[in-house]
Amino acid sequence: SEDLFADLFGAGRRRGAGSDRPRAKGADITYAMSVSFVDACLGTKQRVTLSSGKTVDVNIPPGTVDGTKLRLKGQGQSSIGDSGDAIVEITVLPHLYFSRKDRDIYLEVPISLPEATLGANIKVPTLNGAVAVKIPAGANTGSLLRLKGKGIPALGATEAGDFFVRLKVVLPEKPESSLTEFIEKWAKKHNYDPRAKLGWDK
Asked: What's the mean per-residue pLDDT of the chain?
């Protein structure tokens, strides 16, 4: 009887010790979300439906880059222990004419020959809508105009980015004969070689 009592007592201790084991955490669940270029730059909220059927709003911070993973604590697989997390992986869709480097935005803007030669005031799109830009006289292809603070907004200790307008001089597809004649006369009077300083002929 003592042996039987000892066996029962020992088995009870083993069962009690097993109850102290940590409970398993539920698995994380990954979701895919596509965000427009402008929304990723400026920040936004976007709704996602979880596998549980619950709908939540996801805060997408300004300056979010492609491939960013946002963690929603406790929104993953449920468990007898802690629930897992929901991982939202962001895909930033490309923009038709904006590009990005760090927190700066770049836009290539075609300008006419008169605008480049004489200067002009034009409107260009930005992340926050169209703004007026002054093209200086004598502008050239590749010239950069800087709009300070018009890039990606500041986030915490990070300063706001800038918006750069890169000019591109574009000639008419079919120049009028009067323009062609003027250029021919002008070229005869001026020794103009844009490649002279490159030293290619040395």
From this structure: 85
* β-bridge partners, 174: none
The pTM is what? Answer: 0.77
Closest to 167 in 3D by CA, of 202, 117, 103: 117
Q: Which residues contact 123 (CB under 8 A, 6 or more apart)?
A: 130, 131, 132, 133
Burial of 14 (0-12, 13-18, 19+ CB in 10 A): exposed
Question: For 174, how many CA atoms within 13 A lie in the half-sphere containing its CB?
Answer: 0
163-169, strands of its sheet edge to edge:
98-101, 104-111, 163-169, 144-147
Residue 75 CA to chain centroid, in angstroms? 26
Q: Provide the H-helix boundaries in the chain.
A: 2-18, 37-42, 113-118, 177-189
Strand pairing class (86-92; 29-35) = parallel
Dist CA 164 CA 179 (whole Å): 31
